[in-house]
Amino acid sequence: MMARYRKAMLARGYFLLFVLLLPAASATAVAQLQRFPTAELTVVTANGPRKFTVELATTPAQMEQGLMFRQSLAPDSGMLFDFKTPSPVSMWMKNTLIPLDMLFVDARGNIVNIHERAVPGSLNTINAAAPVRAVLELNGGTATRLGIKPGDRVLHPIFGDAS
């Protein structure tokens, strides 16, 4: 009887240790997430300029992480993926928890195509209609709400101009 009691207490001890260490393990995982510099960016639409504060994904590790695991995104913010040179680009929503609009932008800053309200967690690929220099990700529904359309212009230094 006493041996059974000791086993039960030992099992409870291991369980409590696991529960206590779980937040530390989660904090370590979060600490390993990439940090992103921020910049201002403007999208020039038929309805006027729209300003955003964006995080810049320029390294392979930053591009791989993107907006994964985010619970939310501020209304006038987003992420700009800079591929440096025009390339055929495909994106996906793996581990992405919020719907996103993806704006595919050529080397001159012109929006080539837009994929609206990409489905969170989807492994389907979302393709640029032509080689692009960058992809701008915004909250799902932003393109429609602000009237952003293909042919509109993104102003940012990577496109040879300032926002």
List keywords for this structure.
single chain, 163 residues, Jelly Rolls, 2 domains, seven-stranded mixed sheet, 9 strands, globular
Write the layout of secondary structure elements.
Blueprint: H1 2-31, E1 38-45, E2 48-57, H2 60-65, E3 77-87, E4 90-91, E5 100-105, E6 111-118, E7 126-127, E8 132-139, H3 142-146, E9 153-155
Parallel strand pairs: 2-3
Antiparallel strand pairs: 1-2, 1-9, 3-8, 4-7, 5-6, 5-8
Rounded mean pLDDT is 86
CATH level-3 fold name of the largest domain: Jelly Rolls
In terms of quaternary structure, what is this? single chain
What letter string, H or E per element, gives the SSE order? HEEHEEEEEEHE
What would CATH call the architecture of the largest domain? Sandwich
Radius of gyration: 21 Å
